[in-house]
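just leaving the lab so this will be short. what follows is a protein written twice so to speak, once as letters and once as structure tokens for the fold. can you read through it and tell me how you think this chain folds. anything you notice is useful, everything is just below:
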Amino acid sequence: MEKIVSLCKRRGFVFPGSEIYGGLANTWDYGPYGVELMNNVKKLWWSYFIHRREDMVGLDAAILMNPRVWEASGHVTSFSDPLVDCKKCHERIRGDKLIEENFGKDFFTCIDDIISDIEKRGAEHPMVKENIRTGTNKDPSWWVKETRSDLEKRKKNSISAVNYILKHDRSLKCPKCGASDFTESRSFNLMFKTYQGVIEEDAAMVYLRPETAQGIFVNFKNVQQTTRKKIPFGIGQIGKAFRNEITPGNFTFRTREFEQMEIEYFVHESKWKNIYDSWRENMNTFFVQELGFKKDNMRWRQHDKDELSHYSKETWDIEYQFPFGWGELWGIAYRTDYDLKQHEEFSGEKLEYLDPETNEKFVPHCIEPTFGVTRTVLVALLEAYDEDQVFTEKPGKTPQESVETRVVMRFSPKLAPVKAAVLPLMKKEPLGPKAREIFQLLAKHFVVEYDESGSVGKRYRRQDEIGTPYCFTVDFQTLEDDTVTVRDRDTMKQERVNVKEILSFLQDKTR
């Protein structure tokens, strides 16, 4: 991860936010190559899930919405995390994440593992020992049953479970100072608040949206009536969301401002399961075939009943093997008819669908495949990063001294921020004008770079580090036979291609 962070800063993928002012914790700016990579991810997603399907349409809803939207959705009362403070250094920590990072698993699996461990180790378990030490009843067997029972009761309440675990497991340390003394956890709502109006005192409080989904739900009727789509059909959206995370971190993995690619797919209740399974398969295909990621680095994990969101009947996550462990990348939830019925109740508007074939009137159920843009970009960087050893003959150097480490970003050509670079062999007439002519030809169709600074070998290395698949070198032979040298990023092999064929060559390679 350190190598990725360094490369991102050095080569213009990702910069720390507000850096010249000392930064703002866990905010990131996407540089010239980062924004191209991100746009390519979004374009591929939009093409695969929206343009290529006749049952899908797009939407771009506002970030600011009527506050009643978030009351209806349950975010005002339910969208919270357990916040604890370290009593020694006053560091604020998300309690469930502290436990997850200690055990290397999701929070509810951690609880199940602790319960299993208590059954195996009995009175030797540290939490049981702590109960025996601090309790009035000194019978070990009684405390084994009591500790296990206490955790079972608290499983559905994350705040209660966090309190119990942090109080009785002294091995859990503050990540800042190492102390094991925490305050009681309390509910912390994750929505950012702001004010709409000229004078803050008189203005109405509104929220920055914590998800893009509600913009789709409140527009369900508008979209269905204007597009005349029949159930089943879906609405897709790409947009920013904001969550006031207590403990963001791991580079761009967990941030307070992020972007989502989200779909709400509306179905009849009787048909949800087969369609749900079909969407899971589509997500697999997009991961492997469209983005070119390695299937071995991903896995599916189902939420158990205690972990499910208040609106969900079934949820699966695609998790990715990050350098810091398995982490959620994408997810798919069966939200039933919860959202549309809630908005019917709070708004007074009917959000039913009339089936033109059966004349049945019903509130559609919803399947929600959701994709994190910024996390997908992080995975693209991790998947692409590679190092190999390259022999470059150097006068006066031994063969061992002539071996260099080449950093290369092996993006698939569809994802690569820059598709090609045009390089004149030398920075002088008459190579420059010919190289610029080729650059102008390609720039009408692709993101390409023109580079004439430094030796051609160093220019190749720069392009390798930003993941450019092909370099076209204009040399003196070009002036004679109108051919250029094409260098492949991955194999470093070179071949001659006629200038007239360059455009079709690049189109074929980047499809």
Summary: The chain has 18 helices and 23 strands. The chain has a mean pLDDT of 92. The longest strand covers residues 325-336.
